[in-house]
Amino acid sequence: MTEFALIEISFTLNGTPQTRSVAPFALLIDFLRDDLTLKGTKRSCDVQVCGACTVLVDSLPVSSCTSLAADIDGKSVITIEGLAQSGVLSPVQQAFVDHAAMQCGFCTPGMVLATTALLESHPHPTEQEIRHYLRGNICRCTGYIKILEAVKSLV
Ligand code: FES
Ligand code: FES
């Protein structure tokens, strides 16, 4: 059995400072889902194709299935669990609800977080820019139209 040293990392998770020890090869998705029991981050393709595992690292969307947990040291991480404040949905979450922009919901955390990042960096995107930005988030159910309507309602 190979021995390895755990790496201590300090980061902010959904606004709360944390210090944890992780294996050098631990994936961010496993760290979030298994160690921190944040199951809102979804696993699907495992190869950075579907966007279901998207989280925000320093406000940028990242595929947690292909990111190392050790790399969040010193950074701020937002998962879907961190968007609502005091039980109030974020504007993006509320827009998705209002426009019925989900069916099974499996893609929704990643879609909502990617949309959040888009609107933070670019508050008034065109429809083409929205489509382009969300191209890495795949939805099997909705046909994307409701999602597009939800995002456009926020612009
Ligand atoms: S599970 Fe990470 S991109 Fe699909
Ligand atoms: S709502 Fe089912 S995958 Fe998007």
Automatic annotation (TrEMBL):
It comes from the Bacteria. PANTHER family: OXIDOREDUCTASE WITH IRON-SULFUR SUBUNIT, XANTHINE DEHYDROGENASE IRON-SULFUR-BINDING SUBUNIT XDHC-RELATED. SUPFAM superfamilies: 2Fe-2S ferredoxin-like, CO dehydrogenase ISP C-domain like. It holds the Pfam family Fer2. Residues 7-83 form the 2Fe-2S ferredoxin-type domain. InterPro entries: 2Fe-2S-bd, 2Fe-2S-bd_dom_sf, 2Fe-2S_ferredoxin-like_sf, 2Fe-2S_ferredoxin-type, Beta-grasp_dom_sf, Diverse_Oxidoreductases. One of its GO terms (molecular function) is 2 iron, 2 sulfur cluster binding. This is (2Fe-2S)-binding protein. Keywords: 2Fe-2S, Iron, Iron-sulfur, Metal-binding, Oxidoreductase.
